[in-house]
Structures are given as C-alpha cells and as structure tokens.
Design goal:
18 strands; 5 domains; alpha+beta; 692 residues
Length: 692
C-alpha cells in the first residue's frame, strides 16, 4: 500500500542565498535515491523556510520492486568438464548466487561462452530502506559554507535542531548530530514556539500555517507579490520589482506581512540609484514608483510575522532607512566638492591584483587598449579623444565615499560625478563601462562605453590568464566568464567587426614588462579557447542554434564573433533545403579521406580520369565565386555556390579510386579533395554536422 512520506530537517536560520540550491539538490538527491532503491512514488517536491528544509513524497510504495538480474560467472570451459559435469567453479558460483547449479545457463559474450545465474532479489519494505536513505540525503546536501557545532564532525548549513520523518503514521528512525527523528515539528519562532505533533504527513502544511509558517516557498512568494501590489495600488503607485530580491525576501521569512514606509522627500534630490541601493541592497525594501515611473518617497517592505504591532515595525524600518539615506546624502555632498579628475591620483595606492599592479596601472593599460580598439573600428580622432578621457576617469569613483560605502554603485557614481566637468559622452561612457554586469543586463550604448568596457574586461582577462588565475570548475573569483560573455555580447549586439585574437594580443602586449614571451603565447591560446567556449554558450542558449551547427561553425573560426554568427545563420537557413543532407554527406566523405593528407597543390597534368578533371574545373569556378562572395561576407551565397559541387563530387567518388598504388596519383587526388574541404571550411566544418 502506498503512503506519503514527510521528511523535515529543522535548523537554525539558513542564509537565504543557500535555500534555492539546497531545495533543488534535495529534490534531485531524493529522486535519485528512491530510483536506486527501487521505490516507486507518484511525486516528490521540496519546500523550505529559513528554519527548515522539507521533502514531501506522495504515493510512496510500501515495498521495493523485486529485482531480477543476470550475473555473469566463469567461462563455460571452466564451469563444465569434458563430459558436461559442473566443476567446482560452477558449483561455487551457483552457491554464491543462491541458485541451484542446474539453473545456470550458458550465453555467448563476444568470442567466448560464459555461465550466467538469474538472481531474484525480493523487495524489502520501505520502512527498512528509508532510515539509511534519508540519512544519506542529509549527509549529501552541499552548502557553500557549512558549519560544525558542539563536538560533532558533521557539517551542515546551520545546526540541526529537530527531524521529522513520517511514512504514513509511522516514524522512520533517523539520527544525526545528536538529533533523532520524531513526529514533532515547530511553528514560527515567536508567534507559535510550542511543539506541533503530527499524526500523518497530510497534516503538515495546515498545521504549520496555523502556527504562522507558510512552508511552500512558492506560496509565500506569491503572497508577498499580491500583498505589495495591493499596498502599492493604495498609494497610487507601482512596485519596482526585482525578482532576485523577491526570491531573497521569500527565503528570509516564514509568514509574510507587507507594509508601506515613508522617507523624507528631500532625499529624492539625490541620484535615484543612491536612494534605491540602500533600500534594496541593505534593507531588502522594494521602491515604489508613481506616475511616469517617478520614484516616490515611500518603500515597501515585508516583516516575518502577522500585522500585530505593525506600526512599531514600520517606524523602526523608517528610522533605519533614514540613517542610511542621511549617510548617502553626506557622502554625495562630500564627493561633489572636487572634480572627478582630482581623484585619479589616489588610484596609485590601490592594488588591483598582486601580480598585475595597481588600479592606476590598469587605467593606463585600459586607455591604450580602448584607443587601439577605436582605431581598429575606424573611429574619428574626436571620438578617440573621448574614449581616452573616459578610460582615464573610469575608475576614479573607486576612491569616493559613496562607492566605498556602496560598492554596487561603482561606475554609476562616476557618471554622475563627471557630469559637471566632462562631456556627456565621457560621463555616459564612465557609467556604462561596467556593463553588462549580469546576463540580462544592457550592453553599453555609447562608443565611449563600448570601447572602455571591452578594454577593461579584456585587460582583466589577459592579466589573470598571464598570472595563472584561470577559472576552474565553479571557481571564478575574478568573474572572468562573465567578463568574456560581456565582451562577446557587446560585439554581437553592435555588430562590431572585432577580432578577439587581435584584442587579446593587444591586451597581452601591455603586460610585456611583467610576463615572458612564452607566458604570453600560452595565455593567448588559452584566452581564445576560453572565448570559444563562451560563444558556444551564447550561440546555443541565446540564439538557439543546435550544438552541431555551433560546433561546425566555430571549428573553422571563433575569433570574429559577428562573422561566426553570420555563418551560423546562413548555415541554418541553408540546412532547411531538402538537398542539404546529401550535400553534407558529399563534403563529409571528402573530409574523411582528405583529413590525413598532407598539404599539397593539385597538379592538373596528373588528372587522368574524366570525373576528376570535371571536379577540378568545377572547383576552379566555384573558388572564384566563393572569394567574390566572401569579400561581401555573403555566406548564404557561398553555400549556394558550394552546392553546385555535389554532383561532381558524387561522380568523382563513383568513378575514381583515390587510394591507388601510384603514390603520386594518390597524393594528387587527396589534394583535390583537400581543396573541396578548404572551400567548405570558409563557412563551416561539415563533418561536424549531425546529418538526419
């Protein structure tokens, strides 16, 4: 008989950022463990609050499924003698598997015959399997910063205070770190601290809701959203939603109650980001906007509890925010007392990275690299002057009071501080040069922002690769993956004809006083491979290209992202044709034969067969057309021209023997096929495409 399973791990408050990964892990681990244990179930879900992680399994089978498996034994010649009688090897194998020797069967495996035993393992009751299974789930959960407590060696996100493990009405015994499972859970720490005994898993959610705990994080999230929307409507405003903040707030509390707070309208004279950042980053408030998106002198917050004494809670939150905004106002006024330019000198005392020098040295490199990039893009001297000025001032706000207090505002504050003394282009470039800051962020719109952003990011990547600070696995302390993705997105969004190789090479050369030529060569190769991986992700995830198209296109060149994108789009469009598979097969055959051939020119005088002469002449004609279209970067037309080679290639393979004894003729025919492959590789490596 199937029953529901409830497993709750009660803890001290788990950090909000741990919760989503932990719940996902718990679900995946449980599904895997139940499958391996051969315990069927209808559904498995995980829930959590700051004080608990919960696994709820519906319709869990009462007994494991029986296991029938074939076990391979000794070879037939070792298991039976010449008369066919079982040997000690056969008898021992049968005994070890719990079967009679007469039940052994002989099967052919590869080139030999072996005896097999069919073993049936009768399923055990779920109650016998679950103690070890549930204990394993707790031990296998990973947290970024686990902790120990008391004198236990066991580590977990936070100390475990209680365990609930119920299969139907039966308690499943699980013990860890001095805590043994029971049927008792706990509600809200302050509003319902008493023990809550559960008869069965189905009682869990309702019992806790009565005790001021909404266990389902999705329900809590929706409650917060509805409450804040209603409060905003009463204030004739709209919520300035931040989904990441909403998720964080959801995992900071167990019973949400929203409220509106106020602050002095005088603070709205500050830059908007200066007001919003303390709200969101420090206090976890949501800004409120009025007509036209204008920021209102109000905020929306959520408390962990009901509406009792809500005025006191509101007043306390208003006081905290007022203190934050007072500080921000002071910092802003102090920072504005001198031009941004005057702050640059102080960057000489700030270390960027031990092996890479100071921030000032980075600024010097960014200036040179950004101007070089602008020159490659053909920008006029006036723009290049603005780019250089932007690069010079881009990091100056790092020494300001505001950015020291609110690091999230670097770049943004620099843009504001530059406005009184610098051109709009320079101020905008300073503001934009950290963009894109995350995957969905906008890329810089101004040329100053584009050049300085790309130069800044490539300088960091080049320096870190030269210093051996290369990302491994999940470790990426300098956010190099994000920075490389940012460069690629800027190039692709604006269609910039930028060579990643040239840009990386220029960045590496600016470190020549710190690293050897050998280190530079290794770093360049590693950086290009690093960018290729980023382009693979972008092309598949953002542009929706299949893995084989991406592989085929980037295999013949990933240095120019815009060029690679054009080739991928042309290839996908061309692949829609009915004749494409046959064409791809023809090119792949040519590739497979020619891939081991050395470099060599085709000697027309050695072409004796009509089919090979026809292919040679077709290649000459196609080559001229390919180079014409290549000059216009018209890859679809190149593919259309290449398609005319299909029939000559097919006739060549039908009528000409390539691997003949005459070495000279063989090399010449392989060279002919190599010339076909070279033409195709202008667009992609057809051998990497998955032909349907």
């Amino acid at each position: 008989m199937s029953q529901d399973l409830l497993f709750e791990i009660g803890t001290e408050e788990i950090p909000a950022r741990f919760m989503e990964p932990a719940l996902q892990q718990l679900k995946e681990l449980a599904e895997k463990a139940l499958a391996e244990a051969r315990l069927s179930y209808q559904g498995a879900a995980t829930y959590g609050t700051p004080r608990r992680l919960c696994l709820y399994v519906t319709g869990l089978a009462g007994t494991q499924a029986d296991l029938v498996k074939e076990v391979k034994g000794p070879a037939k010649k070792a298991a039976f003698d010449a008369e066919g009688h079982p040997t000690k090897a056969a008898l021992g194998f049968a005994k070890s598997q719990g079967v009679d020797v007469s039940e052994l069967v002989v099967k052919t495996v590869g080139n030999g015959e072996y005896v097999f035993a069919t073993v049936k393992e009768v399923g055990r009751p779920a109650r016998e399997i679950l103690p070890e299974l549930l204990l394993g789930l707790v031990k296998d959960l990973y947290f970024p910063k686990p902790m120990r407590w008391a004198d236990y060696e066991f580590r977990f996100a936070r100390p475990i205070h209680w365990l609930v493990a119920l299969l139907g009405e039966e308690v499943i015994p699980v013990s860890i770190a001095g805590v043994t499972s029971d049927r008792v859970t706990y509600g809200h720490r302050f509003l319902a601290p008493e023990k809550i005994p559960l008869v069965q898993p189905q009682d869990y959610f309702a019992a806790l809701e009565k005790a001021y705990v909404i266990v389902d994080q999705n329900k809590r999230k929706e409650l917060i959203r509805v409450q804040l929307e209603e409060l905003a409507a009463r204030e004739n405003g709209t919520v300035d939603w931040d989904e990441e903040l909403l998720v964080e707030v959801t995992h900071l509390l167990e019973y949400p109650t929203g409220f509106v707070g106020n602050f002095d309208p005088e603070y709205l004279q500050l830059p908007e980001e200066v007001v919003i950042t303390p709200m969101k980053e420090h206090q976890r408030y949501f800004p409120l906007r009025g007509a036209g998106g204008k920021l209102l002198p109000k905020f929306l917050a959520v408390r962990n509890g009901d509406d009792r004494y809500l005025d006191n809670v509101r007043e306390g939150n208003e006081k905290v925010l007022a203190a934050r905004l007072t500080d921000a106002h002071f910092f802003y006024q102090e920072d504005m007392k001198e031009p941004l330019e005057n702050k640059v000198e102080r960057l000489k005392s700030i270390v960027f990275q031990e092996k890479l020098g100071t921030v000032w040295e980075k600024v010097v490199r960014i200036q040179k690299l950004a101007v070089t990039l602008g020159q490659q893009l053909g920008w006029d001297p006036e723009i290049l002057s603005q780019v250089q000025r932007t690069a010079y001032l881009a990091k100056a706000d790092l020494v300001t009071n505001m950015v020291y207090e609110f690091p999230e505002l670097q770049g943004i504050m620099g843009g504001y501080y530059a406005r009184p003394t610098e051109s709009p282009e320079v101020a905008q470039g300073i503001r934009e040069h950290y963009q894109p800051r995350f995957s969905q962020d906008a890329v810089p719109a101004s040329r100053t922002g584009i050049a300085v952003s790309m130069a800044d990011k490539m300088d960091t990547i080049a320096g870190c690769f030269l210093a051996g600070l290369i990302p491994t696995g999940s470790q990426d302390p300098y956010a190099l993956r994000r920075q490389a993705l940012g460069i690629c997105r800027i190039i692709l969004t604006h269609g910039l004809p930028v060579s990643l190789k040239d840009l990386a090479q220029a960045a590496i050369e600016l470190y020549q006083d710190r690293f050897s030529g050998e280190a530079a060569a290794k770093a360049l190769a590693a950086i290009l491979d690093f960018f290729k991986q980023r382009l693979e992700n972008i092309f598949q995830e953002e542009y929706g290209f299949s893995y084989d198209v991406v592989d085929a296109v980037l295999a013949v060149g990933a240095e120019k992202p815009v060029d690679a994108l054009q080739r991928a789009r042309s290839l996908v469009k061309f692949m829609e044709r009915d004749t494409f598979d046959a064409l791809s097969t023809a090119f792949t055959r040519a590739f497979n034969l020619a891939k081991n051939a050395g470099e060599g020119e085709v000697e027309a005088g050695l072409l004796a067969e009509p089919a090979e002469r026809e292919l040679y002449e077709s290649i000459q004609t196609v080559s001229r057309l390919v180079h014409k279209h290549l000059a216009q970067e018209d890859y679809f037309s190149i593919l259309e021209v290449l398609a005319t080679l299909r029939e000559p290639i097919d006739r060549f393979f039908d009528q000409v023997m390539v691997m003949v004894e005459d070495e000279q003729v063989k090399r010449n025919r392989l060279a002919l096929l190599q010339s076909v492959v070279k033409l195709a590789r202008v667009v992609a490596d057809f051998s990497r495409l998955a032909v349907k």
